[in-house]
Design a protein that fits this description.
The complex is a heterodimer of chains A (about 400) and B (about 60).
Chain A (H helix, E strand, L loop, with lengths): L16 H9 L2 E5 L5 E5 L2 H8 L4 E2 L37 H10 L4 H6 L1 H18 L3 E2 H6 L1 H11 L3 H14 L7 H24 L5 H7 L5 H32 L1 H8 L5 H12 L6 E5 L3 E3 L2 E3 L4 E4 L1 H4 L35 H18 L4 E2 L8 E2 L6 E2 L3 E3 L1
Parallel strand pairs in A: 2-8
Antiparallel strand pairs in A: 1-2, 3-5, 4-12, 5-8, 6-7, 9-12, 10-11
Helix pairs in contact in A: 5-7, 5-15, 7-8, 7-11, 8-9, 9-11, 11-13, 11-15, 13-15
Chain B lengths: L1 E3 L9 H5 L4 E3 L6 E3 L9 H10 L5 E3 L4
Antiparallel strand pairs in B: 1-4, 2-3
Classes of the chains: A alpha+beta (about 400), B alpha+beta (about 60).
């Protein structure tokens, strides 16, 4: 019997145990996708990396299959997915993908993102001061993990001060994880696109020293493409960082020895960031790719048109790559090489920005609150485990 | 010798993180710039890391991939 993707986790930090079993017994196996398609599931590090780097596998939207039955439930949208809208290059192949990505690369280099560090520090400090002023307990998501990345991306894009509040509201609403009807979802998306459209119009009139002005100034993109690209940068760069900040804190608070090693400087923050990325792998349903031709892999033949689900959490806990109990958080481990940001030409464009926010965020949080602790028993932390990006709804903390 | 295929480079910056003394990114297009193509005992391990980490396999050592 062909199984569907296991999604029931063993606690807040561990992926479904079946994924590990699959990896040990049959790292390339058949999988039933959410729409009934019979494809494949990869759970080992080597196979994951191999397929993600293989140009015979496509990322195009119209070729992918949903790993889990799509939300909202009962929506009447049968049939094939549509091609990615203009600018949404995450779901395109070369050469369309190349054109978009190339326009962005120079804005997301290691150096450029490090240059944002002092601005990130200021945003982080403001929010931690806010938390201190109100006093414990606080919801780390609302007080810190949600606003910081949204303000950082807001600055990067060049959202004017007068529009910041509306921007924050839209982002907060978009990513609060509440179940919506299809109408509500469409209405929200329209409001977001409307906001982006107005922002682009504003930047055309009054260009400034920001990413959006630079993209407009390149003259290479239509308004539709600019809209799609901006939307993608927002979606990709906001919620992910929020959940890493929250879950990372939760993981540290749940591993007091590791937390201590970080506090006393035995582990570096940079290393901690990589290990938390590996250990948490919040892109928890993995990545899909579809074969463009027949591909021989690991004694099997993946037929043209078959979809492959690549389990990043399973790959990131592969003992053949990560020695010494990969199921545990170990901040002294060499975790670089993890696949939390993916691999191949689509590897996360914003990863350096994410790294800056995490190293600044974790360090400042732990420094400001030397007695930081959970304000509720860990079992009471509600998990957001049905959406593409794993996280928690609220993290009540005290100090 | 360190060899680079700039066409393949997607500007991820993993090489810079792995071996900052050896690799940089161009301000113009964000793609890899090799600061020193020669291999020494000091930079061999970091360069090997960079080769493995590169998401688009744009780096190689001495002609083999």
């Amino acid at each position: 019997m062909i199984e569907s993707l296991p999604t029931v986790r063993c606690g807040p930090f561990d992926p479904p145990s079946e994924l590990g079993t699959f990896r040990e017994s049959k790292p390339l196996r058949r999988l039933m996708f959410g729409d009934g398609h019979i494809g494949w599931l990869i759970t080992s590090y080597d196979l994951a990396k191999s397929v993600l780097a293989d140009p015979r596998f496509s990322a195009r939207a119209e070729l992918q299959r949903p790993e889990v039955p799509p939300r909202p439930r009962g929506s009447t949208k049968p049939g094939q997915p549509e091609p990615a809208r203009p600018g949404l290059f995450i779901r395109m192949d070369p050469p369309q993908h190349t054109r978009y990505r190339t326009l962005l690369t120079r804005h997301f280099t290691v150096r450029r993102m490090n240059e944002l560090e002092s601005r990130v520090e200021r945003i982080v400090d403001d929010h931690l001061s806010g938390m201190q002023a109100v006093g414990p307990p606080a919801d780390l998501v609302e007080a810190f993990a949600r606003p910081v990345p949204s303000l950082v991306i807001s600055e990067l894009l060049g959202v004017p001060d007068t529009d910041r509040h509306e921007f924050q509201q839209l982002l907060a609403e978009s990513f609060n994880g509440e179940v919506r009807t299809e109408e509500e979802a469409i209405s929200l998306q329209n409001r977001s696109l409307n906001f982006i459209g107005r922002l682009i119009h504003h930047k055309r009139q009054q260009p400034s020293e920001d990413l959006l002005s630079a993209l407009i100034g390149s003259g290479e993109l239509t308004d539709d493409e600019l809209e799609g690209m901006t939307f993608l940068l927002l979606v990709a760069g906001h919620e992910t960082t929020t959940h890493m900040l929250t879950l990372g804190t939760f993981a540290l608070l749940s591993n007091p020895d590791q937390l201590k090693s970080l506090r006393v400087g035995l582990s570096s923050v940079d290393n901690a960031v990589e290990e938390l990325l590996r250990y948490l792998t919040i892109f928890h349903f993995g990545i899909t790719r579809t074969a463009l031709v027949d591909v021989e892999l690991h004694d099997e033949v993946i037929t043209e048109g078959e979809c492959v689900s690549i389990s990043l959490p399973a790959a990131n806990r592969d003992p053949s790559e990560f020695y010494g109990r990969p199921g545990e958080l170990d901040l002294s481990r060499k975790a670089s090489g993890h696949l939390a940001f993916g691999h191949g030409i689509h590897q996360c464009l914003g990863q350096q920005l994410a790294r800056v926010q995490m190293r600044v965020g974790y360090a400042a949080l732990l420094r400001r609150f030397p007695t930081l602790r959970l304000a509720v028993p860990p079992e009471e932390v509600l998990l957001r485990d049905q959406t593409i990006i794993y996280g928690v709804y609220r993290l009540p903390v005290a100090w | 010798m360190i060899e680079v295929n700039r066409e393949r480079c997607v500007g991820a910056g993993m090489c810079v993180l792995a071996a900052p003394a050896v690799f940089d990114q161009s301000d113009e297009d964000g793609r890899v710039v090799v600061l020193d193509v020669s291999l020494s005992p000091d930079n061999l391990d970091p360069v090997r890391d960079a080769v493995t980490l590169c998401p688009s396999q744009a780096l190689s050592i001495g002609g083999s991939s």
